[in-house]
Amino acid sequence: MASAKDIVVKPINAQAANKVIKQLHYSGKVVPNSQLHLGVFLNDKLEGVMQFGPPINKKGTINIVADTKWNSMIELNRMAFSDRLPRNSESRAMSVAFKIIKRHYPHIEWVVSFSDATQCGDGTIYRAAGFVLTDIRQSDALRKNPKTGEVMHVIQAHHKMISKEFRTWEPTEGYQLRYVYFINKAAKDRLAVPIIPFAKIDEIGAGMYKGEKRDK
Fold it and tell me: pTM of the full predicted structure?
């Protein structure tokens, strides 16, 4: 039986990565500004993808860590794995990915990722991979188009110039959680926001899985 140690993580092209994201990610959508695409292979078959790039709202994110240069952080903005991958593949794949980034992009000090519990989960895989939790907030940034059922983010609506219409759509209920991983461990000393204990997720009822409340 295969284990997480059997997976191989390596760069792939955007076309191959986007195809997997559209098939496996809960949103079915890619992030157009993704720059680094890493494939997760098992027995030479592409079974997962991680995509990294600048955050959509970089100005509002970069100051999480003080004195961060414009090119010193990146977002893990899409991750999707097939059910054929072994248990713990997510944390193993992220560990390898961060080693690749550290080796080839040494100017990148930290990685941010957002867990949208209203659509997916509260970030169990990030906690297992060594991220710290830096924000929990009730989210109305995602709303559902009543005509198509499509879920859209407020920033995406702004770019499509439909913000006024977007505000009339029903918001998804739940929380968004922000996680940070320090590739450069010394950068953690510059974290400008408090680290939130993971126990706080259940304390405030923010635990969710696939958009549904999770038992404590």
Answer: 0.85
